[in-house]
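step=encode ok
step=design start
structure_in=
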């Protein structure tokens, strides 16, 4: 029986993969790097630090710690400006999160920056819905490595221990992801997976091993999660 649901952030809760890409395009262009869609989408699952390093390496350019920090900061500022007027949450996701929080423990497992996540969570009042969060910096290896989901389950069970509840097993959890690296990460940690076609094709998500693929979380209810798994 499923007792916990872990959510990715970019591409699952917030519809901002293209916004992220466009912000990076603008910032990296100042360093002589023309970011393509192919480059960006080949790096799904990376945190900002790893992504920026990978793009500089791919462009055969050197990068210092100061440049790395400035690129990340500039992208964060641009990204915030792009979502300031209207927060691009996916249709139905807020309703689904609220419904699920009444029946499951919810966790966030994302390689996104804590500042960006915090800004969205504050505006959308999401924090009370989540029991635990894993973000960039909480683990040293990005998706598709299973470390982030293992850490999420560990944090959840630490919380449950404080509440004098029995720990959960990985197979009592389901992860909702929009990318193959995310699906592989959750599967590697022993969790069930739902792939959502917000970012890549159904074929790509199924090839990564998603147990179920859906086109929208607006079509889902807590009861549907229980029925499927």
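sequence_out=
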């Amino acid at each position: 029986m499923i007792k916990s649901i872990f959510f990715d952030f970019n591409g699952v809760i917030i519809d901002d993969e293209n916004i992220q890409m466009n912000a990076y395009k603008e910032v990296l262009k100042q360093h002589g790097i023309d970011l393509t869609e192919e480059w960006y989408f080949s790096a799904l699952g990376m945190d900002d630090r790893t992504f920026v390093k990978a793009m500089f390496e791919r462009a055969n350019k050197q990068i210092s710690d100061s440049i790395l920090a400035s690129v990340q900061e500039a992208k964060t500022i641009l990204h915030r400006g792009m979502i300031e007027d209207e927060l691009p949450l996916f249709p139905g996701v807020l309703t689904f999160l609220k419904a699920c929080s009444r029946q499951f423990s919810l966790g966030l497992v994302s390689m996104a920056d804590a500042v960006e996540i915090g800004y969205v969570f504050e505006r959308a009042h999401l924090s009370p819905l989540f029991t635990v969060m894993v973000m960039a910096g909480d683990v040293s290896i990005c998706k598709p490595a299973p470390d982030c989901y293992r850490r999420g389950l560990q944090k959840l069970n630490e919380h449950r221990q404080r509440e004098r509840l029995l720990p959960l097993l990985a197979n009592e959890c389901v992860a909702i992801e929009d990318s193959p690296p995310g699906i592989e990460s959750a599967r590697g940690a022993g969790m069930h997976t739902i792939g959502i076609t917000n970012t890549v094709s159904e074929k790509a998500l199924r090839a990564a091993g998603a147990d179920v693929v859906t086109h929208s979380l607006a079509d889902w209810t807590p009861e549907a999660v229980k029925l499927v798994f």
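step=design ok
step=annotate ok -> The beta strands are 4-7, 105-109, 132-134, 173-177, 192-196, 212-214.
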